[in-house]
Amino acid sequence: MDIGTTESLQYDFGTVQVATNDFSVDNKLGQGGFGAVYKGVLEDGKEIAVKKLAGDSGQGVLEFKNEVVIVAKLQHRNLVRLLGFSIHGHERLLIYEFLPNTSLDYFLFDPTKREFLDWEKRYKIIKGIAKGLLYLHEDSRLMIIHRDMKASNVLLDAEMNAKIADFGMARLFKRDETEANTSRIVGTLAYMAPEYIMYGHFSVKTDVFSFGVLLLEIVAGQRNHGFQNGETIQNLLSFAWKRWENGTPSDIIDPTLKTGSAISLHNIIRSIHIGLLCVQENVTHRPTMGSVVPMLNNLSILLPKPSQPAFLVHSTITNPKMLLPLEFSSSSGSSNLERPEVSTINLRPSTFSVNDVTISEIVPR
């Protein structure tokens, strides 16, 4: 869809400039990988959030068009709502509904603030994210793979309802398409499925993997890549799996949640079970979001036994010299609204010689 078809959503740049007090520092909500986000107030008193794309962003224009085209067509209570956009010279703006409670990571990974997130709120957020992803994958007119599902891309409204945000990395699919490959890996490493990291292969199951990581983080109240157990720091997926195997999954639960009832504890452990199902290494073993949503809403549904999860770059390849070489770069920012930690990996061809005589090609033609 050409961007011209969304002209009805276009805002006058001057109007947005006035609403944000000329993009003043006082109105700045945060700094993301593709620009800054500002709070604005329109003449009618309506509050907005304005994402101003960085002029030096290499893919700024592509991300901008992608996000406008996708989000303008999406309507769901668990997706952030795009109000419009603005173009002025090299300036490109996205105008969203303003969500007062910023992002999930603002609460979840703060030792003090996460106490505000009791299990009832966390479970509501988990189910909201699941419903939003189900809509993207199965219920919207377009099938969409988000590709950057993480805590900082879950915004919270005044009632703490989860709304999935940031579709700059998303991919649209026709209904007869189910998967694709890419040589440019985008997203956040701690949430990436192994088949996506290693081979550039992605499908709805890559979003399911990211959702599983996020679910376990919500239960634990800690990040996947910096999970702290006593004095040691390790991978949350690895720790969760080992505790599941030895029958002590409650060890990963955020201590602030342990004061709940026996029913809540059972529900939390069931959620850990669902999270482990989502991060299984074998793509075919992971459920779809169409299966996950009923699992979360109907406690009588029997859950299959999970198999070993993928511990990020963990794989069944035993010879490290045989790994596909990756060209890796990342950029990160810090804000309350967005902490993009966007990683870009380019799968590039390379030559190998096992015996210094012939060239061994690891990736088939």
UniProtKB/TrEMBL annotation:
Domain Protein kinase: 23-311
Binding, ATP: 52
Keywords of this entry: ATP-binding, Kinase, Nucleotide-binding, Serine/threonine-protein kinase, Transferase
Superkingdom of the source species: Eukaryota
Signal peptide: none
CDD domains: STKc_IRAK (cd14066)
SUPFAM superfamilies named in the record: Protein kinase-like (PK-like)
Similarity remark: Belongs to the protein kinase superfamily.
Protein name: Receptor-like protein kinase
Organism of derivation: Tanacetum coccineum
